[in-house]
Specification:
The protein is 51% helix and 15% strand. The protein is of the alpha/beta class. β6, α7 and β7 (220-223) form a beta-alpha-beta unit. The longest helix has 28 residues, at 102-129. The N and C termini lie far apart (39 Å). The structure holds NADP nicotinamide-adenine-dinucleotide phosphate (NAP).
Length: 247
């Protein structure tokens, strides 16, 4: 597959890039720091050997939507046809930090909702223009219900999840395959220092599950799968119960 990956410098995105590169997929990386991107590209090239050619990179920041189009155009120019666009970039902060810092809250809401949605709009336009393709986005289980520890982050991810569902309905018949990934707690730089809940996972097995969903075009995937059942219960908890518990 020819895959464009936004957010491969750390965490789940990096594990995903390694997994895809290892099996011979051609990659193009988008991120906000060109030096970091070049380092990531070199690391991947070394892992897969020189045979697959250099990995292209382009700069874009989730907070600068005007960069999305040119970055994706560069990806299309480098890869020719694009089979999948993956958005693994995202921002997290604790609810306390977000309540204390309105500018941080604004950045998070922009990165995880409007920036992410606008990036997907640019990607789906290009995928549809070539007759279809896959759009895979990392949302979160945090968007399933309004909950005390993730009021703002959860709202952004919940909005993103809803947008992706609508996109799937609207463009499925024209060949767009939307894959919404809902991770639970994954041990990455994003969660460093946070108390670890049950079912915490490492990025590598999560990345393998995302690759499988990408191959199959699974519309919604919980990683790891236990979260599907946890969230089934959480989605059905009465509001009065959810208000009382800290979860
Ligand atoms: N880890 C979890 O427990 C968990 C759970 C549920 C959902 N998720 C979601 O999964 C995705 C990946 O998370 P992760 O754990 O891999 O996080 P991570 O290790 O913190 O990596 C985040 C990635 O996003 C990029 N990024 C952050 N802000 C950006 C911006 N404004 N513009 C462009 N790129 C930006 C980072 O680039 P730099 O290297 O330049 O900073 C990095 O590549 C996120 O959408 C996150 O919300 C994670």
């Amino acid at each position: 597959m020819n895959v464009v990956l936004f957010g491969a410098t750390r965490g789940i995105g990096r594990a995903l890039a390694r997994e895809l590169a290892a099996r011979g997929d051609r990659l193009f990386l988008i991120g906000r720091d060109l030096e970091d991107l070049a380092r990531s590209a070199r690391d991947l090239e070394i892992r897969v050997g020189a045979g697959s050619g250099p990995i292209g990179v382009a700069r874009a920041d989730l907070l600068e939507p005007e960069r999305f189009g040119p970055a994706l155009d560069a990806a299309w120019a480098a890869l020719g046809r694009v089979d999948a666009v993956v958005l693994a970039a995202g921002l997290f902060a604790t609810q306390d930090a977000l309540e204390a810092d309105r500018a941080l809250a604004r950045r998070l809401l922009e990165a995880d909702f409007s920036g992410s949605v606008l990036f997907c709009e640019e990607a789906r336009e290009r995928l549809l223009a070539q007759g279809g393709g896959k759009l895979c986005v990392l949302s979160s289980v945090a968007g399933e219900r309004g909950r005390k520890p993730v009021v703002l982050y959860g709202a952004a991810k919940g909005g993103l999840t809803r947008y992706l569902e609508g996109l799937d309905h609207r463009f499925h018949a024209r060949g767009l395959r939307v894959i919404t990934v809902k991770p639970g707690f994954v041990r990455t730089s994003m969660t460093e220092g946070l108390p670890e809940p049950p079912f915490a996972a490492d990025p590598e097995p999560v990345a393998r599950l995302v690759v499988r969903a990408l191959d199959r075009g699974t519309p919604v995937v919980y990683v790891t799968p236990i979260w599907r059942w946890v969230m089934l219960v959480v989605r059905h908890l009465p509001r009065a119960v959810l208000r009382r518990v800290g979860f």
